[in-house]
Write a structure and sequence with these properties.
The complex is a heterodimer.
Chain A: E1 2-16, E2 58-60, E3 66-68, H1 69-76
Antiparallel strand pairs in A: 2-3
Chain B: H1 4-26, H2 33-49, H3 64-76, H4 80-94, H5 97-112, H6 115-132, H7 140-157, H8 162-172, H9 180-188, H10 191-194, H11 196-215, H12 223-244, H13 250-285, H14 291-303, H15 307-326, H16 338-356, H17 361-376, H18 380-388, H19 436-441, H20 448-464, H21 471-484, H22 490-512, E1 520-522, H23 539-555, E2 559-575, E3 580-585, H24 587-598, E4 601-603, H25 604-611, H26 615-628, E5 631-635, E6 638-641, H27 651-654, H28 658-669, H29 685-707, E7 710-711, H30 712-719, H31 729-741, E8 745-748, E9 751-754
Antiparallel strand pairs in B: 2-3, 4-6, 5-6, 7-9, 8-9
Helix pairs in contact in B: 2-3, 4-7, 5-6, 6-8, 6-9, 8-11, 11-12, 11-13, 12-13, 13-14, 13-15, 14-16, 15-17, 16-17, 18-20, 20-22, 22-23, 24-26
The chains are: A mainly beta, B mainly alpha.
InterPro entries (chain B): ANAPC2, ANAPC2_C, Cullin-like_AB, Cullin_homology, Cullin_homology_sf, TPR_ANAPC2, WH-like_DNA-bd_sf, WH_DNA-bd_sf
Organism (chain B): Schizopora paradoxa
Pfam families (chain B): ANAPC2, Cullin_AB, TPR_ANAPC2
Chain lengths: 117, 756
């Protein structure tokens, strides 16, 4: 007997690739990590966004903390932030992605960050 | 001896009186000539007025001169009242003369039932009356006295059958040429005054008969206007006789008829209203066709205050209906169709009552039991939502303007403001521009439930889409956005965008590296909880999945794909030695058959282990293939591949693939009645609730382990600390009861503890 696939309509969901420290075969039910600022899952969107995913990307700090980009920028733009990571109070430095990038433009430098909605 | 003095005084007194009277009568005429003249006049007057038997005696010639002279004399001597008195006495004596004739006529009538006899009788009595009536020159007092005497006697001798005979006579004149003489006679004899109710009831009965005759079951055309024009043509014409004979021109006629006419018009409305009220249930069932009847009813209700009757009729109807439903003795014998039918009925009712009563007071009063009942049914929301998205339901009228579901705020500056209807209860809220959907949604306190169910339904439909065409869903969501507001449906918006994105991503991936798989990639947090599983796709599938996954990550560098392996569908071609099958199956089925391509015989448990899936689910998948005739179970739990078709059972061709495919499709569409628990890809709101409760069970288990026994309210108090816990204590009680039935806990004297 031979089974040939002609067409396959599969269902999948996407997740942010948070780096190697995440187990490859993690629980599919897992809620996933939440943004330390808005407490919404990374795969959700920050309070000021309506669409998740590419419209509401993440930002990595060199301190290894990850946030919704919009959340972090909003924080950094307040005077009280003193440009520190909200989690550990180290000066915020946007890190290159843990995953190697082919297109470096994908992570906009902080200075060129788009104005916040 | 009497005192001569007293006697004399008395005699004096009598004499003076006599003199005075004599003087009065004699009127100062010489000698007794005045008295003689008076006597003559008196005799003449009495003779003149005397009521004779007209059968035997001719009436005396009326001599103008003699009459004038006579009554001048009588008037002068102030003795006119005596003449009248004498006349009245004469009259009383003579009146029985008519008895004989009247009774004879009545006897004839009873034999023949011919109303013309009654007419003849009345005319004959009128002849008597005319013969006896004093001339009008004598002034009205004598006329009044005469009439009273005459009528009293006449009415007293009429037998009890007369009223109905009289009514029959009146009724017989309907539609006939007017007979003013007869009506005039009626009035002369006082019959109209005395039998006014009878005359009116002739009209009433005509109206009732007409309504019965023309309107019963006739809902497709406006009857009220027809009835009114019938009234104007037939009845009003007739009414002129009894009510407006005296009118000299149409203007007067109109004003004279006005009062009585509006009374009859009221009766028309009332009769029609009564009829329609008794018919209301069927009118509602017939709804779009019965529109004219509803408009009639509305108009009638404005005229006749019978709203409370309508309300109570409807309420008792619905109470009855619901009791029947609750007692499982259904009018509609399909148990599955219930909610839909009730909803449908309810919607018709909404539409009907909105026609009758736009502010919705009636609806508010009637709808309560239905709404309560619907609220208790588990699949109401689903039915409403599926009709919202236009799935097999005509609950929603396409033509109805879509309106946002706003809580109405009283607009104090509205120039068209009208007070609430008088029978509106204190809890009634005007919600003027509400459409059917708003009314349905308002069955529940919040629209969140709908949005949630809508999300579930949308997810089911979107996931079932394989050709990338979801324009219909998009359009539905756009419409629903207007109703529920943009914000509430944001989640649905994300779902739709996931669909578009999936398509774009797939196009890109396919251009890079053609692949047989076209996944729908969803944003997990924006979709209802989907059925998850750890199905391991074997063999070639695994490769396909991995390849696609890699391509995806290459395209979207910071994202990864996580498959929901049990969801979706595959189109497979199965090539066997003697036949080829094209099938459309869910992944689990595909995985099972794939394993058979590596090995011809499998034991159920091995398959289950290999695929990392519960054996009952594998069993179902195997059944699919048994149905297709590809696999057969030769021993219990032992399955073999049928490389060549089993001619004996001939399963393959005789049981075509169609039903099975249907089923797998159905699983996606999610008809709640047929879905096996593990088959529905999207959990219904109810299942989600059960799922949540399972989480709380962990808490309960923990506290009972630590604290031994606890009363229900303590458990509830402690659960309140759990995040997102929003159950009432009653719900918790139900849940604990369920747990007890499963043998997880025991309850002693209201204290719960874990069973050992």
């Amino acid at each position: 007997m031979k089974v040939t696939v002609k067409n396959w309509h599969a269902i999948a969901h996407w997740r942010w690739d948070l780096g190697a420290n995440e187990p490859e075969n993690d629980d599919i039910d897992g809620e996933g990590d939440v943004c330390g600022i808005c407490r919404v899952p990374f795969e959700g969107c920050c309070p000021s966004c309506k669409m998740p995913g590419d419209d509401c990307p993440l930002i990595w700090g060199e301190c290894t903390h990850v946030f919704h980009m919009h959340c972090l920028l909003k924080w950094i733009n307040t005077a009280a932030s003193k440009h520190q990571c909200p989690m550990d109070r180290r000066p915020w430095v946007t890190a290159e992605r843990t995953v190697a990038k082919s297109k470096p433009t994908q992570e906009p430098p902080l200075a060129n960050a788009p104005p916040l909605p | 001896m009497a005192t001569p003095l007293g006697e004399r005084a008395f005699a004096e007194h009598v004499k003076s009186k006599l003199d005075a009277t004599f003087q009065k009568i004699n009127d100062g005429a010489p000698g007794v000539s005045g008295l003689a003249k008076f006597t003559k006049a008196w005799m003449y007057g009495r003779e003149f007025l005397f009521p004779r038997d007209i059968r035997t005696q001719e009436r005396k010639e009326f001599d103008q001169e003699a009459f004038k002279e006579t009554f001048e004399i009588l008037g002068k001597s102030k003795q006119l009242w005596r003449v009248i008195e004498t006349f009245t006495q004469d009259l009383r004596r003579q009146l029985p003369l008519i008895d004989e004739e009247v009774l004879e006529f009545m006897r004839q009538y009873q034999e023949t039932e011919d109303v013309t006899i009654i007419r003849r009788m009345i005319m004959r009595v009128a002849e008597w009356w005319k013969a006896w009536a004093p001339v009008p020159e004598l002034g009205s007092p004598i006329m009044t006295a005469f009439n009273m005497e005459f009528q009293t006697h006449f009415f007293s001798i009429l037998p009890p059958t007369f009223p109905s005979a009289f009514k029959a006579l009146c009724a017989s004149t309907l539609g006939q040429p007017a007979d003013p003489e007869m009506w005039q006679t009626f009035e002369t004899l006082g019959l109209l005054d005395r039998y006014e109710n009878l005359v009116a009831s002739v009209c009433y009965e005509q109206i009732e008969a007409r309504v019965q005759e023309t309107c019963v079951g006739e809902w497709s055309q406006p009857m009220l206007s027809q009835l009114r024009s019938w009234m104007a043509d037939d009845i009003v014409q007739w009414m002129i006789m009894p009510y407006a004979r005296a009118a000299r021109n149409p203007e007067e006629t109109r004003s004279m008829l006005h009062g009585v006419g509006s009374r009859f018009d009221f009766h028309v409305c009332k009769t029609l209203c009564d009829l329609r009220t008794t018919e209301i249930f069927d009118i509602i069932v017939d709804f779009p066709d019965s529109m004219p009847a509803l408009i009639d009813l509305k108009e009638c209700l404005q005229r006749v205050d019978q709203r409370s009757e309508l309300v109570s009729t409807l309420r008792s109807l619905y109470d009855h209906l619901l009791i029947e439903l609750l007692a499982n003795r259904k009018r509609l014998l399909h148990p599955g169709a219930d909610t839909k039918d009730i909803l449908h009925q309810y919607v018709s009712m909404i539409r009907c009552l909105r026609v009758i009563d736009p502010p919705g007071v009636l609806l508010h009063k009637v709808a309560d039991p239905v709404r309560r009942y619907l609220r208790e049914r588990p699949d109401t929301i689903r039915s409403i939502v599926s009709s919202l998205v236009g799935e097999g339901g005509d609950l929603v009228d396409e033509n109805e303007p879509i309106q946002p579901l706003h809580v109405q705020v009283e607009d104090y500056s509205d120039p068209n403001w009208e007070p609430e209807a008088i029978d509106a209860g204190p809890e009634f809220r005007t919600n003027k521009p509400s459409d059917v959907i708003s009314t349905l949604v308002s069955i529940y306190d919040s629209k969140d439930l709908f949005v949630k169910e809508l999300q579930v339904l949308l997810a089911q439909r979107l996931l079932a889409i394989t050709d990338g065409n979801f324009d219909k869903e998009r359009r539905n969501i756009e419409i629903l956005k207007i109703r529920f507001g943009e914000a509430a449906l944001q989640v649905c918006e994300v779902m739709l965008r996931d669909m578009t994105d999936s398509r774009r991503i797939d196009q890109h991936v396919q251009s890079q590296k053609p692949c047989l798989m076209h996944p729908t990639i969803i944003s997990k947090h924006f979709w209802p909880p989907l059925q998850t599983g750890k199905l391991q796709m074997p063999g070639q599938y695994k490769e396909i999945l991995e390849t696609y996954s890699k391509e995806f990550t290459a395209f979207k560098q910071d994202k990864k794909l996580r498959y929901l392996p049990q969801l979706g569908t595959l189109d497979l071609t199965i090539e066997l030695t003697d036949r080829t099958l094209d099938v459309h199956v869910p992944p689990l089925e595909a995985a099972v058959i794939e394993l058979f391509s590596t090995k011809d015989e499998w034991i159920l448990d091995d398959l289950s282990k290999e695929l990392n899936v519960d054996s009952s689910a594998v069993r179902q998948a195997l059944d699919t293939w048994v149905d297709y005739g590809v696999v057969s179970e030769d021993k219990l739990h032992h399955f073999v591949l049928l490389e060549t078709s089993e001619s004996g059972s001939a399963a393959g061709p005789s049981r075509p693939a169609a039903p099975r495919t249907d089923k797998s499709l159905k699983e996606f569409v999610g008809k709640p009645a047929v879905v096996e628990n593990e088959a529905a890809p999207v959990m219904s709101a109810q299942q989600q609730e059960a799922e949540q409760m399972r989480v709380y069970w962990k808490f309960i288990e923990g506290m009972l382990t630590n604290l031994g026994t606890l009363p229900l309210d303590r458990i509830q108090t402690m659960l309140r600390f759990a995040p997102g816990y929003s159950r009432s204590i009653e719900q918790l009680g139900v849940f604990m009861e369920a747990a007890r039935r499963e043998g997880l806990v025991v309850n002693t004297n209201g204290l719960w503890k874990l069973s050992k």
